[in-house]
Amino acid sequence: MTLPKGFGSGSAGGSSSADIERMIGKRVENMTGMITISFWAALIATFGGTAAGYFYYPWAYPTASGHFAFIVLTIIETIGYIFCVKVMEEGSNKNSNGIIGASVAGAVAFVLFVSLYVGW
Amino acid sequence: MIKIYYFYISYFIFGINMLRYMAQMPALIPKEVEIQRLKKIWLIVIAMGSTAASVEVDNFVDGSLHQTSIRDSAFTPAHWWLYSHFITLPLGWGAAAIYDRKIPVLRGPNNSMNTGLKMTILGYLATMFTIGVNEMWHFWFVEEIFAVPNHWMFNMGVVVAFMGALAYVVRVYARLVELGAETPGENPYVAEMYKMALEGKLYSRAIP
Predict the structure, then answer these.
(1) How many domains does chain B have?
(2) CA–CA separation, A104 vs A40, rounded Å?
(3) I need a surface site. Which of A47, A71, A94, B2 has the fewest CB within 10 A?
(4) Which domain holds residue B41?
(5) Contact A98/A85 with Cβ under 8 angstroms?
(6) Contacting residues of A for B53, CB less than 8 Å apart
(7) Domain locations in chain A?
(8) Residue B197 lies in a domain
(9) How close is the nearest chain A Cα to the Cα of B26, in Å?
């Protein structure tokens, strides 16, 4: 197999496993931390957006309406998060069910707290 | 008549070339590398899919606001939400297009960008530029009627982008199945359907 410039031994020949590792870079099954941080960043941004609605424009966005949008968006983001981690780890011996479980449970607690106590 | 003939000839040559490229593609990068790269594309696609779903939610939020205040300003939360996403989507899919060059099997005709990706980026670019067009329109016409032409551009852009994204996602998924990284459904009937789809026999065998 012909490899890109800079890879392989220089003569016509196959690729070593070191070459393959170098072409891959960071493996997707090791990206769970980054995906989890992105999920929480998205969740907090979503809270900020909906809160701006009911704090600054309460005549247009009743608090209940903002919370409804926040809940629906959290569900969308959570599905994306679970999908990301599960697809990236399938086929490897990695298993981050604990991190996913804790993260989703934390998100549920956060959304419940916001919906019950913020903006009323 | 001659023009029609040329059209058919060029179409035929294009078809032959497509077959040639498709036959060459699979050997260009090691399988493991390709799987990892396809999955990195998958990450961007999931993020963009969530963003698109969020835009759909805001479609209702913004519509709800415009029923209480007809035309407010560009700087309401519903508009921040809508407009920031219409900038995020073309940029995010653009990032997918930059990374996509590392996966030979996803190349489009004549080594250009994948056709589905092209449609997605063009569709979302249309929505991005429509932000400006829309603001110019509402500078003169202070209404918020759903059917005005500046809103058509938002909706048509999204539809074009969705069609392209679907084509691209199916291509990525089918390739992951082909490489054995994704397993088709456990239901044997579904698995058989995927197998037939990969062999190009889905309709001829499944539909009597």
Answers:
(1) 1
(2) 10
(3) B2
(4) 32-179
(5) no
(6) 76
(7) 1-26, 31-117
(8) no
(9) 11
DSSP 8-state symbol, A114 = H
pLDDT at residue B20, as a whole number: 45
Residue A50, C-beta contacts closer than 8 angstroms, at least 6 positions apart:
A61, A66, A67, A69, A70, A73, B77
What is the value of ipTM here, to two decimals? 0.82
- Distance of alpha carbon B120 from alpha carbon B161, whole angstroms: 4
Reported as a single tens digit per residue, the pLDDT across A16-30 is 788 888 889 999 999
Chain A: give the shortest CA distance to residue B148, in Å.
23
CA-CA distance, B164 to A68, in Å (whole number)?
A: 31
Q: Per residue, what are the HEC states of A14-57?
A: CCCHHHHHHHHCCCHHHCHHHHHHHHHHHHHHHHHHHHHHHHHC
- pLDDT averages per 10-residue partition of chain A, 120 residues: 63 70 92 97 94 86 91 95 94 94 98 96
- Counting as low any pLDDT under 70, the low residues of chain B are 1-27, 184-185, 196-208
Domain membership of residue B27 (yes or no) is no
Q: So what's the pLDDT on residue B75?
A: 82
B32:A20 CB<8 A: yes
